Amino acid sequence: MGYQNNILIRTSLSDEGIIGKRNFSYGSPDMISHTQVEDPKKFFTDNYGRDVNMPLDKNSGTNFVYIRGKNKAATGTETKGYVWLYCCGSSLFMKPSLWSGKKVYTAKGESCASVSSGSQNEIVVTSDPFLLNALAVQYFCMVSIITNEKKEYLPQDFVSYDQFNYWVRTNIGVGVRNFNVLIGSIVYDFQRLDLLSNPEDKEKAAMFVVTWSGLPDGYTVGVKCDAIPDLAKSTVSSGNTHSLAAAAIIPAGFDGYVETYAYNGDKKIGFPEGAVIITKFYTTVTIKDLCYPFGETLQELGCQPAEHLGLSETSKLVLTGECSTAFV
After folding, report:
1. Would the CA dihedral through 100, 102, 105, 109 be positive or negative?
2. Which of 193, 194, 278, 304 could form a disulfide with 257 if both were Cys (CB 3.0 to 4.6 A apart)?
3. Angle at Cα 190 formed by Cα 185 and Cα 192, nearest 5°?
4. DSSP secondary structure letter of residue 163
5. What phi and psi values does residue 164 have, to the nearest 5 degrees?
6. DSSP-derived pairing of the beta strands 56-57 and 181-182
7. CB count, 10 Å around CB of 143?
């Protein structure tokens, strides 16, 4: 079968992938629920000696799951694999026919994420995190499988416990974990992830403007990116408040996601019919930039300079992206 057994997903922190000497557990430290990080490869390589898993939030539709591994191939061997993630109940491990239909997709909507390495013992991290909507699933035991081509390779239902135990212990590219789950204090009525990237080799000052209509007073509306701590702002909707603006410095080469969200605190999921939420993304321009004539100042955008990191009265911004959601 086409498993990628040159990349190790550990069963414990001491696991070196030596068959017969693996300290097996249902808590792989390489299957990691974590808030978004700026540079996943560096972050999860630097803490390879620790289990940095965080509990999943049962009330959130935007839980990130990263999978990391270690290249155990011979020196100089180019190694590539495709990572697949599945939800299942602990009692369902024996029946892949049941959990094969509970695939977890990446944040970009792909069925799997790639990993690659050109050197022995290099740490690899999935190219895109998996996105788990905890509101929509019942089980939080997960199986990860690395294949050597972009194709699913699932075993038949196991006919004995021995058969399953042997499979999961002798394929180092297979991992299992029972994730901890917490009930978050916020029940979100709305969450949307939008791609956020900075292709430049230097950091960039930018601003997000969120506007909404059709929301009753009392809804909290916000925008955030856990990988960029400065990008986190929310406000409460009222008759006089129907927008917010948040500025942040986008790191050079950043490739991640920004989340727009709303909730009203009644602990029930639902959104008013006819409501609309729009997120606009502005980037700064200087007089040397081609788009400078198209730029707008903070005053022209109705924003106060003192509130926005890295922006002044003379800063100009150009609308670079926009995404809206309407509830009908």
Report:
1. positive
2. 193
3. 115
4. H
5. -65, -45
6. parallel
7. 23
